Batch of 3 targets.
Target 1
Amino acid sequence: MIEVQRLGKRFALPRSARRKAGAEPPDPRQENGWFNAVREVSFRCGAGEVLGLLGPNGAGKTTTLRMLSTAIAPTAGSVTVDGVNLVADPLTARRRIGFLSGGTGLYGRLTVRENIRYFGDAHGIPRAVLDDRTSELLSKLGMGQYADRRVDALSSGMKQRAAIARAMIHAPAVLVLDEPTTGLDILGAQVVLDFMRERSLAGCAVVFSTHHLHEVEALCRRVCIVDMGCSVFEDSVDALRAADSGSLSAGYLARLKRQ
């Protein structure tokens, strides 16, 4: 389970980007030499649930997910991951999270199997267990014939599948994915979506950002909409659909502050 409460992150602006006194800010998130990329985001995702994180480009979704991964520290709010306070104990929380970002985070000169083993060793997984998990993940992601190929020789879709295997090798309780199907063909995207569904059925809490509402329809029990750094809706998919004549897309657009 993961619970996010009033999460915030701000970054110092370079002097060249700071507005002069009395001038209108180019973005309401900019103030006093700071840019509030995430201002107040809250949501929860229980074990066995899939939550879709929605919002326009620049809304703060990727920054939010990077905080959940412990890649960057929040400047406000709290995150609890499987009972662990992520802000107070990021190292312990990290062991409970599998994270996939826009970059695959793989080593191109290593094979798929070597990459997975490398990250498994980093988590201290015994070799016998690691080998079994590696074989299982390669099979579920349809990568058996690519296991011993170098990553830099793979297509973008196969790299994405390998990155998911790398993120899952330590059997995390929470899986966090940033637009996992972007750039994939229909077959590759379906393999990824099926894997996410399988992980949720196995009891994993899955949080993923997407611009594709059909993925939300197919997978999600809950949804959080982020706009201008704030969560503007957090409830069930059915509640969002019911909010505007039964249409998920209409309900989504109605919750955005900017159309």
Note: Residues 106-171 form one domain.
Target 2
Amino acid sequence: MPDFEYDRTKGGFKSWLRRIANSKAVDLLRKRREHMADSQQIRAVRDSGPTPDEIWERQWEHQHLKYCVEQVRQSVSAVSYEIFHMLLFEQRSVKDVCVRLGLTPNQVYKAKARVLRRVRQKLAEAGIDINH
């Protein structure tokens, strides 16, 4: 405080010092309150994303589904699996599958239904319900 000059007419030194300390304390409390309000606002915002448990569950189901599809693949004809794969994984249209494989729509639908039924059976045998 090199520039400080004491002037008794403005009040006592203790009063002046108290006013400075009080102002600093109020500033500090105000900053804390603002910080706390920010934290509470952040906590109030709900995370709409999946929880870790939901992510784990999806991954678990996905891995079991892949396993069951692979098991079924080994037990059906190559053409039936190709139809299933093109429709579900490549998301091709029935018309496109018919043109590519030289089949009728009825043949495509039947093959898909057979493979899908077997996949569901494998999942049920494993005790997995992914239809929820």
Note: The mean pLDDT is 84.
Target 3
Amino acid sequence: MKDSRAALRYAKAILSLAKDSKEDAVVNEDMHLILDTISGNKQLDTLLNSPVVKASEKVNVLEALFAKRVHKITQGLFRLLKENKRIDLIVSIARQFAIIYDFEHNIQVAKVTTAVPITDDIQKKVLEKIVELTGDQANVENIVNPDILGGFILRVGDMQYDASISNYLSELKKEFDNIHYIPKI
């Protein structure tokens, strides 16, 4: 709990600094890059959370990975976290930053559950449809669940649209269960 509050404070401070220099969109992209990179690499995540590895070595790894790919504000965050011995908060800070940024820019998270991963083309069409329906921008989060068999389940905010084959079969089963067969005598 204490770490999440600290991550939120860092995220707010970095967002404020980025907004002052009109670089908040760039820093938001950096935060997504950091999240995707660390969450996609178990060894990197383990290294960053290891109490055995020195903070300076963790920062060296982050700088080697991101030095030419992120904005100077994000690089400054790495150094600040090194000085404060809080480098293990980087993922939490990036996540909190993205949440605050999305909230301030009316960007929703659209969760699309499919049986197989969606392609970039389908993701683009989903985003267009969401903007058409809600008037707000959205980030697509694809959840792969083979149990839905096919189709998709779209959840944006408190709205959900279930066009999955498993839902269709469930509805069909309910209809058959409600039919009372009366044989002719």
Note: The chain has two domains: 2-103, 106-178.
